Amino acid sequence: MVRLPEAELALVSTAEDQEVALDENARGIELLAKELGVDDRVHLTGPLERKELPRLLRSADVFVSAASYDPYGGAVLEAMACGLPVVATATGAVPGAVLHRTSGVLMRFGRPDEVARSVRAVLNTPTMSTAYGIAAVDRARSRFTWQRIAIETELAYERSRPQLAARDEIEEDEADLLLSGSPN
After folding, report:
1. To the nearest whole number, what is the mean pLDDT of the chain?
2. 142: pLDDT strictly greater than 60
3. What is the DSSP letter of 33?
4. What tens digit of pLDDT does each residue of 27-83 get?
């Protein structure tokens, strides 16, 4: 935020059973924002109901995820489904969701200057922002539907079945050899 003086940051709490003011992480963010002089542009919200999230996402200009690791990429996909261009670290499942320089920008973790540069590029280039947003919503809605995920999961199980059967057969043969006392 120090590197992006024209930006505002909205952080949505995921702690369903706590008030934001009591959340240890939220308090740390508030203190850091105040220390850096950006507290007037950093907004922490309480937990949102699921149905409120798309409205909040659509009010944003860009979705930024600078997480050190994101095993599922769910928040990134939700933002993409709402038509937001994405700036995110290329960790976990994110590179499978975001197409670099098509639906957003992927970067290495721990590079605040790179985050600021990428966000600024998206915000200051309306055609890029619009193109990324269109590509993001198209990719999220076509590639990551529950129906497609179910089909691909089933296919993955089907592909692994012959390997499992072969492994089970080998283990059964080894067990038979042990039981028979055969030296081979």
Report:
1. 86
2. yes
3. H
4. 899 999 999 999 999 998 877 888 888 999 999 999 999 999 999 999 999 999 999
State both tokens at 61: 């200009």
pLDDT over 90 (residue 159): no
Closest by CA to 105, choosing from 49, 64, 163, 54, is 64
CA-to-CA distance for 33 and 11, rounded, in angstroms? Answer: 12
Bridge partners of 44, per DSSP, are 11
Residues contacting 113, CB < 8 A, separation 6+ = 3
Q: Under a CB-based contact definition with an 8 Å cutoff, are residues 30 and 44 in contact?
A: yes
Residue 89's DSSP bridge partners are 107
Whether residue 85 contacts residue 122, with contact meaning beta carbons closer than 8 Å, is answered with: yes
pTM of this structure: 0.78
What share of residues in the chain are helix, strand, coil (percent, to 5)? Answer: 60, 10, 30
Q: How far apart are CA 184 and CA 172, in angstroms?
A: 14
Which of helix, strand or coil describes residue 108?
coil
Q: Give buried/exposed letters for 20-56 (b at 16+ CB in 10 A, else e).
A: beebeebeebbeebeeeebeeebebeeeeeeeeeeee
Cα dist from 67 to 71, 146, 150, whole Å: 10, 25, 27
Give the CA distances from residue 137 to residues 85, 94, 101, in Å, rounded to whole numbers and listed in that order: 9, 15, 14
d(CA 164, CA 184): 23
